[in-house]
Write a structure and sequence with these properties.
With 671 residues, the protein is α/β, with parallel strands linked by helices. It has 25 helices and 20 strands. Helix content is 40%, strand content 13%. It is elongated, with a radius of gyration of 28 Å.
């Protein structure tokens, strides 16, 4: 049990560092940190294993602030416990160029594990982190060597639990019996519009019990003894994730704004900050004040953390001697070192081979390299037979087998995206998730956050166009490619055949953390194997666009296409050449990969003098004009959706045929 007198002083320090920072910025959320300060105090001083001087220690406990609006709570405790976050950083809260932004961002602020803010995302990220720990432990822990035994802690809010993603993630976490999860629920009864009873009156406890979680209730967050006992009980429970429902009071200590919506997203005001300090026995004339004994108390985390890490590293050193092969495998995975000769295992195809759907070619690529990448794990949102993402010969990841590599996320696309992010954040793991391209709409928030965090999960989307056929309008993507391409720091790849699909996976595997996620977009329908003999090889996919077929001399026309439409461009090529139109065919599977090439290469593919260009893609035409110029055109899908009909008929109806391409090319050249 933590000593009471110093505890109260420590907690008030957190409260008023937070309130002062919000007030100085004249922007932020002071109420949550003031109410939840005891949670941070107890976690960081009593329970969590961490080393402020090595935030990447492999066996540290992970903390996720899913209620990211309350980030001054986390910034304050990180500063106090010795992370590289100065008092000046706290004073620069929410200012341009600071490392204390308005919601937590990993990679920017020391000690922040995941980028949170959109409510519910952090909750689901934590489930992914817990899965990552379970997988690593199942693969690498050995008798006497408990290398990975860390917990995932989080603070979540009413808003997190209202968002549907948290229910999706909680359901899966309970099903998988992730007993390494301990979430503290900041039950303060207040949201932006007022008391939560205007929209949120369910029994959260009963809901989580139905999800097969252990639910513990603490009636008063300021009862430190009760809070400690609840966390201890949560740690003892290994078969269920734990939710500790803690009654808090937003803006605790504020005489006029406690338990009011006004303290949620606005500064208290200088007068109210002063009154709050007086109310809790704090010097109202001191700002950003840390008493000496509080400083000494929290900085004990530094030697304590070093000692815990040193003990672990001694164990890890013995593990290296006893289990050298596993040790090296793990180190290579953590350092993203690729095994020698892995690219030689990738499947290649000849033009004489039978047509194959790129989703099937993707399956062959996954299974060709999976034996060499034991930490390549993932699955789909109940669509493995359709997305072809199952790792052959591998078992399912279940509550009875955490070493399984095939994941069953259920029909939970939104949480799948955020869970895969949590898995991908885990050092040593390469994670992927799959569904139909149309359902990428459900996943945009986690995909966007993966891009912000610059982590490298792989998102596989199949059934990529109206070519999927009879499922019709609701399942046929039109605007989804455009939407994905609009996200900064993302790499979208739409391969044209089996060979390009192989190289799409090569690029995805070589994509390291720091570059953002890779999206691979694949067909349901079979596509011919393209003949590269008269052009550049499919390995040039890594450049984003390359010349697949060329003409003698300078071209009159350039046909640009992606995915299934590349074969249409190739069919059109010969007829145009026969008509005396000198034609170049460019396969352009990735705008993003092309844009990082130098100008010399770009101009070699798209000579500025060749103005007549046609882009062909069964999706929205928006964005293609940057490549076709004002004198070109786009054969795409305009202001309409698909229809329910066989795919071949739809492609003909919408103009994705040799006949239409040739017709439009001749019209263009007559202008």
């Amino acid at each position: 049990m933590i000593e009471t007198d110093i505890s109260e002083k420590c907690i008030n320090t957190i409260r008023f560092l937070s309130a002062d920072a919000v007030q100085k910025a004249n922007s932020g959320h002071p109420g949550m940190p003031m109410g939840a300060a005891p949670m941070a105090h107890v976690l960081w001083s009593k329970f969590m294993n961490y080393n402020p001087k090595d935030q990447k220690w492999l066996n540290r406990d992970r903390f996720v602030l899913s209620a990211g609006h309350g980030c001054m709570l986390q910034y304050s405790i990180l500063h106090l416990t010795g992370y590289d976050l100065s008092m000046e950083d706290l004073k620069q809260f929410r200012q341009l160029g600071s490392i204390t932004p308005g919601h937590p961002e990993s990679g920017l602020t020391p000690g922040i594990e995941v980028t949170t803010g959109p409510l519910g995302q952090g909750f689901a990220n934590g489930v992914g982190l817990a899965i990552g720990q379970k997988y690593l432990a199942a693969r690498y822990n050995k008798p006497g060597f408990d290398i990975f035994n860390y917990h995932i802690y989080a603070i979540c809010s009413d808003g997190d639990l209202m968002e549907g993603i948290s229910s999706e993630a909680a359901s899966l976490a309970g099903h998988l019996k992730l007993g390494n999860i301990i979430y503290l629920y900041d039950d303060n009864h207040i949201s932006i519009e007022g008391d939560t009873d205007i929209a949120f009156t369910e029994s959260v406890a009963k809901r989580f019990e139905a999800f097969e979680w252990q639910v513990i209730t603490v009636d008063d967050v300021n009862d430190i003894d009760a809070l400690e006992k609840a966390i201890e009980a949560a740690k003892e429970e290994t078969e269920k994730p734990s939710l500790i429902k803690i009654r808090t009071h937003i803006a605790y200590g504020s005489p006029n704004k406690v338990n009011t919506a006004g303290s949620h997203g606005s500064p208290l005001g200088e007068d109210e900050v002063r009154l709050s300090k007086e109310n809790l026995g704090w010097d109202p004339d001191k700002h950003f004040y840390v008493p000496d004994d509080v400083k000494e108390f929290y900085l004990e985390a530094v030697p304590r953390g070093k000692e815990k890490q040193n003990e672990w590293e001694k164990l890890y050193g013995k593990y290296k001697e006893k289990h050298a092969d596993l040790y090296q495998e793990l180190e290579d995975a953590i350092n993203e070192k690729l095994p020698a000769g892995w690219k030689d295992k990738l499947p290649l195809y000849k033009p004489t081979d039978k047509p194959v759907a790129t989703r099937k070619a993707s399956a062959k690529a996954i299974n060709a390299i999976a034996p060499l990448f034991p930490n390549l794990i993932g699955g789909s949102a109940d669509l493995a037979p359709s997305t072809s993402t199952e790792i052959d010969g591998s078992e399912s990841f279940t509550a009875k087998n955490y070493a399984g590599r095939n994941f069953h996320f259920g029909v939970r696309e939104h949480s799948m995206g955020a869970i895969v992010n949590g898995m991908a954040i885990t050092p040593g793991i390469r994670a992927f998730g799959a569904t139909f391209l149309i359902f990428s709409d459900y996943m945009r928030p986690p995909i966007r956050l993966a891009s912000i965090m610059q982590i490298n999960p792989v998102f596989v989307f199949t059934h990529d166009s109206i070519g999927l056929g009879e499922d019709g309008t609701t399942h046929q993507p039109v605007e989804q490619l455009l939407a994905l391409r609009s996200i900064p720091r993302i790499t979208v790849i739409r391969p044209a055949d089996a060979n390009e699909t192989t190289h799409a996976w090569r690029v995805a595997i070589e994509h390291k953390k720091g570059y953002g996620p890779v999206v691979i977009v694949l067909t349901r329908q079979n596509l011919p194997i393209l003949d590269h003999s008269a052009g550049q090889g499919p390995e040039n996919l890594e450049k984003g666009a390359y010349i697949l077929r060329d003409t003698d001399g300078d071209p009159d026309l350039i046909l640009i296409a992606t995915g299934s439409e590349v074969s249409v461009a190739m069919e059109s090529y010969q007829e145009l050449e026969d008509a005396g139109i000198k034609t170049r065919v460019v396969s352009m599977p990735s705008w993003e990969l092309f844009e990082i090439q130098d100008d010399t290469y770009k101009k070699s593919v798209f000579p500025p003098a060749v103005k007549k260009r046609i882009a062909i893609e069964a999706g929205s035409p928006i964005g293609w004009h940057q490549y076709v110029t004002d004198e070109g055109m786009v054969i795409g899908i305009g202001n309409r959706f698909g229809e329910s009909a066989p795919g071949e008929e739809l492609m003909e109806e919408y103009g994705f045929t040799k006949e239409n391409v040739v017709k439009q090319a001749k019209k263009l050249l007559k202008k």
